[in-house]
Amino acid sequence: MTTAPHFTVADSAEDPDADIWFAEPAGFTAVPLDALLPPPGSPAADDLRTVLEPLLRAAPDELARQRFIARLAQGQQLLGALREEGTVHCSIGLHRDDVGEGAVCDGRPLLSFFTVSWRATAVAPRAVTAARAVSGLDTQARIEYVELPCGPVAFSETVLVPRGTGGLPRTPLIQLRAHLPHPDCKQLAVFALSTAAVDRRDQYREILRQIATLTTFDNPLRQASPEEP
C-alpha cells in the first residue's frame, strides 16, 4: 500500500510577493526571521518583547537573564548578517542517525542548517547562470548539473574546516548548495544545506536534491481560472 505524501502549507506560501515555493522534509523547523529581526519601534518589536518577558522573568537570577539576552543578541546579529546577504528563509534540521547497524548506527542527533538566499545576476540564459554559479569553486568541490521541473540546477558540495580561532573546534563542515536560476534570468536562488555530519553526506545530498526537485517558481496554490464558456 502506498501512502500519499503529506504537506503542511506555511503562511508564507500565500504571500503575494513570493517568488519561489519549496517543501522541506520532516525534521526541519523554520527560524522566524521577521519576528526575530523586527524594525525598532514597530508593532513586531512590541510583540517580540511580549514573548520574551515571561522567559526573562522565569530566569533564576540576573546573571542568567543577562546571559540569555547576550545569546539572543548574538543570534540576531547572525540572522541580520544572513539577511544582508539576501537570505529570505532559514531553518534548523534535527534528525536521528538511523543509517547502518550496530556501532555505526548510534542514534545520535544530527544537526543541520538550511537557508534560501537570492543573488542578483547578469541577464543570461538560465543554464549559463547555473554554470557560472559554480565556476569559481575549488577543484576538489563536487559539482553536478541537472534539469529539474523548475529548470536547470547546479549542485555543489564542499568541505570546510574552520581555522579554530576564538577557541572554536576545527570540526569539518560540509556545505551542499543548489543554484536555481529564476525564469526572469536576472536572479538566482541559492539553497544551502550545512552540517557537521560529514559522514552522512550522501543522505544530506539526497535531502537537498529532494527540496530542489519539489521547488517551483509558479505558485502551486493558485487556483486555475474557470474556463471560458
Range of strand content: 25-35%
Question: What structural class do helix, strand and pairing data support?
Answer: alpha+beta
Overall geometry comes to: globular
Low-confidence spans: 224-229
Number of strands: 7
Taking strands numbered 1, 2, ... along the chain, how are they ordered across the largest sheet?
1-2-3-7-6-5-4
Q: Whole-Å distance between the termini?
A: 41 Å
What's a quick, concise take on this entry?
The chain contains 5 helices and 7 strands. It has 229 residues and is α+β, with helices and mostly antiparallel strands.
Architecture overview:
The chain has one domain. The chain is 28% helix and 26% strand. The chain is built from five helices and seven strands. A hairpin with a 2-residue loop joins strand 4 and strand 5. It starts with 27 loop residues before the first strand and ends in a 16-residue tail after the last helix. 15% of the residues are buried.
